[in-house]
């Protein structure tokens, strides 16, 4: 039988043949669409992939015919050869299947080469997975991920255009838009995750907390642990040292700042107020909360520069593994399913690159879904692979053991206290990736409570800012495209008539009720913090 030596037949743009031999390596538990290499695709085109399965004998016959028809044969081929080859091809045995999820209209991208920034934390995972699994490639995007040394530099680089977008603290787009710190409009159409933080104290402080509350001496003390047993330690330190008790958080508008403030204040410890003349928030403070970059938290704790801190993973687990501290509470127990990070871009960038932005959100939705995928028993099936990827030096760069402690659905408080926490990191389920207006409003209430917003605002202002910064319409448009491509189920996103406000909740450590439609009432419900005129609730 003649053979095509040029290789043209196999390299042409005709529909590819795939052998029924399934011995080629694939990722365990993943679909072929998720496993296959994803080539860069041109923008503004349609792509359709057909998978044709034949046995090797039929494939050989088809290739022989192709060689004859394309001229890739020698002069000895006769009509008899052609007829003989054709007789061996049973058309009824050729299975042609088109994967509906592989057919999609490519968006007309304004820009395809993008650079996104991130901080070395496990909740950068959706960006990393979108790149490593090829979801960005699928949208025609060539994405570079660049680590940033701290949150301020990251924000500045988004504002000045060095970065097209970034892994951001959920409060950063809000703070930047209204001018808490640097003023520059930032928007988000994607929430990267829920939960994921913890509060860790030094071994010395933990021992003192155990003395103040004997119940904490249990190998598995009852959780959540309030700051009540910390209060006498803070009071004594303030009296003896003549200055506030030192603790760390990652950034003034971070979830961490508001969470540790919430935890302290719920037990009557004043974490300090921001004023026009005190942008560090130390006024009236019993605890001084200093800004420390996340990866530097453990070394600051070990050096006794701070006595405790609030940070994301893997830096609480790092304290456990190295034996320098004890996590006392996670933010899941401060506020169940709280928003943590978002993907942020400059408002001007979003306006200039609407199709590119949409493509990015599509890829991130797929990444979030992949991260939270489970088997029939509810086991997270992709997290081990995610841990392997995140542990690389170009991403989080921490030991696999440290990262897996939280990412695999468990959390280590002490060697004697290892707890199942399947929702410690949530990337997609519970509508975690949707940009809810109510989440934005919660951050605004905390900024006002602690004085970062220096003047009273009417209730309507909170809703207006939330709608300026959080862009669910972009998320929904991206999700609708994925639904049409067969990559997302309509039930996996909020219903079309959803107004962007999560249900009223009391799932906070103090049981306080949060209703995003009554921000003034919520601000006034706390014993510690600013108060506003109730008449503003009707404006």
From TrEMBL:
Its main location: membrane. One of its GO terms (cellular component) is endomembrane system. InterPro entries: NrtA/CpmA_ABC-bd_dom. It holds the Pfam family NMT1_2. Residues 14-44 are annotated as: Disordered. PANTHER family: ALIPHATIC SULFONATES-BINDING PROTEIN-RELATED (PTHR30024), BLL4572 PROTEIN (PTHR30024:SF43). This is Nitrate ABC transporter, nitrate-binding protein.
């Amino acid at each position: 039988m003649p053979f095509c030596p040029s290789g043209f037949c196999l390299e042409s743009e005709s529909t590819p043949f795939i052998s029924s031999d399934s011995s080629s390596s694939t990722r365990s538990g993943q679909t072929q669409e998720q496993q296959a290499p994803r080539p860069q695709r041109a923008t503004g085109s349609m792509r359709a992939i057909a998978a044709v399965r034949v046995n090797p004998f039929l494939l050989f016959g088809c290739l022989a015919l192709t060689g004859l028809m394309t001229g890739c044969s020698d002069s000895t081929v006769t009509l008899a050869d052609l007829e003989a080859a054709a007789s061996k091809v049973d058309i009824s045995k050729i299975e042609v299947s088109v994967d509906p999820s592989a057919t999609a209209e490519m968006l007309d991208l304004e820009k395809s080469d993008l650079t996104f920034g991130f901080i070395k934390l496990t909740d950068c995972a959706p960006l990393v997975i979108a790149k490593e699994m090829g979801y960005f490639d699928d949208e025609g995007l060539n994405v570079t991920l660049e680590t940033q040394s701290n949150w301020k530099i990251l924000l500045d680089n988004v504002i000045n255009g060095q970065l097209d977008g970034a892994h951001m603290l959920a409060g950063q787009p809000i703070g930047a838009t209204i001018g808490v710190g640097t003023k520059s409009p930032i928007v988000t159409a994607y929430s990267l995750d829920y939960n994921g933080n913890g509060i860790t104290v030094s071994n010395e402080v933990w021992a003192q907390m155990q003395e103040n509350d004997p119940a904490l001496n249990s190998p598995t003390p009852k959780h959540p642990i309030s700051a009540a047993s910390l209060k006498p330690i803070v009071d004594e330190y303030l009296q003896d040292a003549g200055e506030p008790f030192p603790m760390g958080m990652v950034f003034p508008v971070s979830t961490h700042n508001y969470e540790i403030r919430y935890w302290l204040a719920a037990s009557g410890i004043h974490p300090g107020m921001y004023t026009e003349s005190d942008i560090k928030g130390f006024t009236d403070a019993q605890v001084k909360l200093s800004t420390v970059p996340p990866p530097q938290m453990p070394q600051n704790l070990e050096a006794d520069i701070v006595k405790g801190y609030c940070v994301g993973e893997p830096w609480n687990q790092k304290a456990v593994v190295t034996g320098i501290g004890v996590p006392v509470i996670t933010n899941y127990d401060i506020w169940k399913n709280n928003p943590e990070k978002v993907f942020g871009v400059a408002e001007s960038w979003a306006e200039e690159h609407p199709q590119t932005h949409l493509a990015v959100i599509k890829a991130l939705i797929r990444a979030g879904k992949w991260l939270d995928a489970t088997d029939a028993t509810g086991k997270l099936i992709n997290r081990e692979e995610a841990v392997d990827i995140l542990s690389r030096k170009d991403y989080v760069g921490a030991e696999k053991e440290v990262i897996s402690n939280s990412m695999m659905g468990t959390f280590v408080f002490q060697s004697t206290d290892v707890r199942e926490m399947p929702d410690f990191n949530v990337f997609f389920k519970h509508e975690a990736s949707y940009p809810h207006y109510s989440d934005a409003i919660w951050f605004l209430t905390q900024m006002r409570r602690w004085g970062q917003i220096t003047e009273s605002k009417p209730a309507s202002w909170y809703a207006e800012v939330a709608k300026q910064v959080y862009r669910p319409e972009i998320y929904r448009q991206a999700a609708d495209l994925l639904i049409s491509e067969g990559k997302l189920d309509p039930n996996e996103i909020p219903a079309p008539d959803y107004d962007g406000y999560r249900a009223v909740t009391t799932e906070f450590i103090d049981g306080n009720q949060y209703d995003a439609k009554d921000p003034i009432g919520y601000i006034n419900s706390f014993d510690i913090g600013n108060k506003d005129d109730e008449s503003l609730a009707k404006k």
